[in-house]
Write a structure and sequence with these properties.
The complex is a heterotrimer of chains A (66), B (261) and C (376).
Chain A (H helix, E strand, L loop, with lengths): L1 E4 L2 E4 L6 H8 L6 E5 L2 E3 L14 E8 L3
Parallel strand pairs in A: 1-5
Antiparallel strand pairs in A: 1-2, 3-4, 3-5
Chain B lengths: L4 E3 L2 E3 L3 E4 L6 H11 L3 E8 L10 H5 L5 E4 L7 H15 L3 E4 L12 H13 L3 E6 L3 H9 L6 E2 L13 H10 L5 E3 L5 H9 L4 E4 L1 H4 L4 H21 L24
Parallel strand pairs in B: 3-4, 3-10, 4-5, 6-7, 7-8, 9-10
Antiparallel strand pairs in B: 1-2
Helix pairs in contact in B: 1-9, 3-4, 5-6, 7-9
Chain C lengths: L8 H9 L2 H8 L6 H7 L2 H4 L2 H16 L2 E9 L26 H13 L4 E5 L9 H12 L4 E5 L5 H10 L3 E3 L7 H7 L8 H13 L4 E4 L8 H18 L4 E5 L18 H14 L5 E3 L5 H7 L6 E3 L28 H10 L3 E3 L19
Parallel strand pairs in C: 1-2, 1-8, 1-9, 2-3, 3-4, 4-5, 5-6, 6-7, 7-8
Helix pairs in contact in C: 1-3, 2-3, 3-12, 5-12, 7-8, 8-10
The chains are: A mainly beta (66), B alpha/beta (261), C alpha/beta (376).
């Protein structure tokens, strides 16, 4: 399915599980926060979520700055 | 003498907080953090970018002993965005602390008092330990305190300006009246300024540019740590009084002469 | 049972034994606290009264300009169920008692306005069914429609009662602890509502919670050992200011005079000692209004106006009413010593280059002040 990740189109090759998506992106799950369609989705809910075509995600990490 | 800097339900030994921005490299930043002895370190949020995945600082920082990460909401333009940033920050770091900073004007980077207050109210309800970056305004400081913030963080001068304690007289009022810790943040340039904050009763300082932009950040971080300690110690040692004689001119107490009950 | 903040023993020693050098430093300290206050109460500081006076005058000028706020007391009732050893209205005394009727109150207010006054202090005895909350509130409402500031110096109330007074137009509440010494307090207040030390102690905080803009505090000098009482008063004022950052405090200095009534002070205070206490407060709390009544002599009042003292009563009557002609007669609470009328007193102030001020701000903008702190 096609997703929008961090503002860019991303072809997702999995079943829509967040863990799968993060692996595709080479993002370590412990270091990110996930927003789906504008809502922060807490880590504890990741396993129960199935992404759908056209979902907009933001994958956020901590960085040096501020 | 010192039972530590109490923020939220925690106590910290170091009264120097560090920002992680503007360093020439991650390694330099980590070395400076180590040299500073800081236990509270602020981090920003950004989109994950796999090309910059080695920029991830969460790992190396979080694995340093004694470090508590404090996500900041830098980039947020209003309360709603700041709240969202805080929630994201907590998700990533697991830290209950958040440095609330909302500076809509990119030139002077002055904090927005209204959005900051509104965000603080919401975040306190969400059980964050809110550290609000704010203008050096004594009334706003009490309002944020009343709202439940864990500390107040009045600015010394504009972020990165190196103008030192331009707000000195206001900081003195804030420190005198506060019932929560006062952490002076932004604009500090030299360790002596950090010492001055501690001497006048400030509880901590947050330093970023002064260390990151120094020629030798590690050495500067060490200097700031020493200055914060020295200033606090001086306060407890009791500074000698300034000599300033009170001058009496014409007799004001003649009305008391001749007894009288 | 007693709050720990009443313990001023760390500073009592300073107040008794500070030396001249410490006193001179305390007089010019840039951020004075209770430590400086204690030092300024010491005998060594008392030997440098002129220096303290100069500093007090400078600070009064800085914070109040060269003005003196003026007000008049208006007793609404002298009926009282309580036996306070020192008070002319004590329940056991056979005196002429009266309670103002609504019409008399109107006439009294009109008389005070004719004198030029814009601020009134309403007083009663201790709480009585016939002179209780409603009576005070109605009097406040009447006075607030005529005066820009109405202060109530009545019995201790609940927070919601204070809120009711504030809504009726009361801007401030004055409540003297009389003495902070619990043992002396119990001795002096045998029975009646006022005998409850703790209730009275917490009343100023309740008033500020209820929306009063400011509270007036004080001890009746002469009731107890003055150093400790005055240190505790300072602590009380400091704590309230810190907690209620949106409200204010004022300090008054009622003193038992030898000739007033038949109660002799167990710890009599001289004029010099009173002056020193005033100067100490001004130096250690530079921005707090300091209030002096007509209990003191004209000479003392003239001397200390603007030298620490920033607010004074004038043309006072301590009978029930007494400004209007037709109010029924009654006994006074205490004898006053300064009998000068408004015109005469104002002329004296002006000769001292002090400007008498009758109102600070217009009543038009007034709504109850609702800021307070959750933290103690």
């Amino acid at each position: 399915m096609n997703l929008v990740v961090n503002g860019a189109t991303h072809p997702h090759k999995g079943q829509g599980a967040i863990a799968e998506l993060l692996e595709e992106l080479h993002a370590a799950p412990a270091t990110v926060a996930v927003m789906i369609n504008g809502e922060v989705v807490r880590r504890s809910r990741w396993e129960s979520i199935r992404l759908a075509e056209g979902d907009e995600l933001e994958i956020i990490v901590a960085a040096a700055g501020g | 003498m010192d039972d530590g800097l109490r923020l939220g339900d925690r106590a910290f030994g170091s009264r120097l907080l560090l920002g992680t921005g503007k360093f020439s490299s991650i390694e330099t930043m980590l070395a400076a953090v180590r040299a500073s002895g800081a236990e509270l370190v602020t981090v920003a949020l950004r989109r994950f970018n796999r090309e910059r995945s080695d920029d991830d600082i969460c790992g190396p920082l979080a694995s340093m002993p004694g470090i508590t990460l404090v996500p900041n909401t830098s980039g947020a333009m209003n309360a709603r965005e700041a709240v969202r940033a805080a929630v994201l920050g907590r998700e990533i770091t697991g830290s209950p602390f958040v440095k609330l900073e909302i500076h809509p004007n990119p030139h002077h980077l002055m904090p927005d008092p209204i959005e900051t207050y509104n965000a603080a109210v919401t975040l306190v309800k969400e059980a964050f330990f809110v550290l609000p970056y704010m203008p050096a305004d004594p009334v706003l400081a009490r309002r944020l305190e009343d709202a439940g913030c864990a500390a107040v963080m009045p600015l010394g001068s504009a972020i990165g300006s190196g103008q030192g304690l331009a707000t000195l007289s206001m900081l003195q009022v804030i420190i005198r009246d506060a019932c929560v810790p006062v952490i002076v943040d932004a604009g500090l340039r030299s360790p002596s300024e950090a010492a001055a904050v501690m001497e006048m009763g400030g509880d901590a300082v947050l330093v970023n540019s002064a260390i990151a932009a120094a020629e030798n950040p590690t050495l500067m971080a060490d200097a700031f740590a020493a200055a914060v300690k020295a200033g606090r110690q001086a306060r407890f040692a009791g500074l000698m009084p300034r000599s300033e004689a009170a001058v009496a001119t014409s007799p004001l107490t003649a009305f008391l002469a001749g007894g009288g009950s | 049972m007693r709050p720990e903040w009443l313990d001023v023993s760390p500073w009592l020693d300073l107040a008794r034994r500070a030396d001249r050098g410490m006193a001179m430093q305390a007089a010019v300290a840039s951020d004075p606290g209770i430590r400086e206050f204690a030092i300024l109460l010491s005998p060594a500081a008392g030997a440098e009264l002129e220096t303290l006076a100069a500093r007090a005058q400078a600070l009064t000028r800085r914070h109040f300009g060269q003005t003196i706020g003026l007000y008049a007391p208006l007793y609404l009732s002298n009926y009282c169920p309580t036996q306070c050893a020192y008070c002319g209205f004590a329940s056991g005394r056979r005196i002429q008692r009266h309670r103002l009727s609504a019409a008399e109150l109107e006439a009294e207010c009109a008389a005070l306005k004719r004198l030029g006054l814009e601020e009134v202090l309403l007083l009663t005895g201790d709480r009585l069914a016939t002179a209780g909350y409603e009576f005070v509130r109605d009097a406040v409402a009447c006075a607030a429609s005529r005066f820009h500031n109405v202060t109530a110096e009545v019995f201790a109330m609940t927070e919601s009662e204070y809120a009711g007074l504030a809504a009726a137009g009361c801007t401030a509440v004055t409540l003297y602890q009389e003495t902070y010494d619990p043992a002396r307090y119990a001795l002096l207040h045998e029975s009646g509502p006022k005998a409850d030390y703790g209730c009275r102690l917490d009343a100023p905080a309740r008033a500020l919670e209820g929306g009063m803009r400011s509270v007036g505090l004080g001890v009746l000098l002469g009731l107890s050992e003055p150093l400790e009482d005055v240190l505790r008063l300072f602590r009380h004022a400091s704590r309230l200011r810190r907690r209620f950052w949106g409200g204010g405090v004022a300090i008054s200095f009622p003193r038992i005079r030898p000739q007033s009534g038949d109660y002799a002070a167990d710890f009599p205070l001289s004029q010099r000692q009173l002056a020193q206490i005033v100067f100490a407060f001004r130096i250690a709390m530079p921005d707090v209004p300091l209030v002096l009544s007509t209990r003191e002599s004209p000479r003392f009042r003239d001397g200390i106006a603007g030298v620490g003292i920033s607010k004074m009563s004038v043309a006072s009557r301590t009978t029930v009413g007494g400004y209007a002609e037709n109010t029924a007669p009654s006994s006074p609470q205490f004898e006053i010593d300064d009998h000068r009328g408004v015109e005469e007193f104002c002329a004296t102030l002006r000769a001292k280059r002090l400007q008498p001020v009758f109102k600070n701000w217009d009543a038009v903008y007034r709504t109850p002040c609702l800021t307070s702190s959750a933290s103690t």
